[in-house]
Design goal:
Elements: H1 3-11, H2 16-23, H3 27-37, H4 44-47, H5 55-63, H6 68-75, H7 79-88, E1 108-113, E2 117-123, E3 129-131, H8 132-153, E4 171-174, H9 196-203, E5 205-208, H10 220-234
Helix pairs in contact: 2-3, 6-7
Length: 244
């Protein structure tokens, strides 16, 4: 990378990232050569260290209840910089949610949620109140994502009839009920994807449609027996069983 060419590109208004894309290099490589040649890249002032912000202005913004983003825009600093100086100067923010003692604090309070308005907040074990509806939506979303992963890993369709149109209709049925520790659809979907207990339960089950939904399938008992016998042969921990 020649100095005259890099200086010419900077003079033309190109950034380090743009030059890197032209050359097939990372922007940090272009920055290295710019420092080596003593050149100043475009936009470097934006990321240069500017020291501490105005403390009086920061205290005023915090007392007015401004958000971290609003403080950053007013002070021309990043959110992480604002958060750092708030902690260093021990400046309290008005309206900030503080941790409470779960042993003495009420379990439920009524507060205003940014998404759901005035609603009930539940106290969590870490000492913070959280909107009940937000928490329910988060758990439901997590369950759907986990089930989609488990269904995909299990083949994505019913082992007996090949149904794959709607994952909500598919269920996990244990090959041997004696090996069942917990219901995957009840407790398993809230566990970590890396959970060894849940992985063991899933491997000990077959992905199928609910029994009532398969009443019209031909030779259903034969299909079920064949699928379970195949699973028993492929895994030493499974036992050969048949449905009666």
């Amino acid at each position: 990378m020649q100095r005259w060419w890099l200086d010419q590109r900077f003079a033309g208004g190109a950034s380090q990232e743009e030059i890197g894309r032209e050359l097939g290099l990372h922007g940090s490589t272009v920055a290295y050569w710019a420092r080596k040649y003593g050149l100043k890249a475009n936009g470097s002032e934006k990321f240069a260290a500017r020291g501490a912000p105005d403390r009086a202005q920061l205290e005023t913004l915090a007392a007015q209840g401004a958000t971290l983003k609003e403080m950053g825009e007013a002070l021309e600093r990043s959110i992480s910089t604002v958060r750092y100086w708030l902690a260093r100067w021990n400046i309290d923010r008005v309206g900030r949610t503080r941790r409470v003692d779960p042993a003495v604090a009420p379990k439920k309070v009524e507060r205003r949620c940014g998404r759901h308005g005035l609603t009930v907040f539940h106290l969590e074990g870490r000492g913070y109140y959280r909107c009940s509806r937000c928490r329910q939506e988060h758990v439901s979303s997590w369950r759907r994502r986990v089930k989609a992963t488990l269904v995909r890993e299990a083949g994505g369709r019913c082992r007996l009839c090949g149904y794959d149109r709607c994952q909500a209709a598919l269920e996990f049925h244990h090959v041997d009920r004696a090996d069942k520790v917990f219901a995957i659809s009840h407790e398993g979907l809230t566990r970590s994807l890396e959970s060894q207990d849940r992985g063991t339960e899933v491997r000990a089950a077959l992905l199928e449609l609910p029994r009532g939904s398969r009443s019209g399938l031909p030779n259903l008992r034969g299909l079920r027996r064949a699928a379970r016998a195949s699973a028993a042969r492929n895994s030493p921990r499974w036992t050969r069983t048949t449905m009666t």
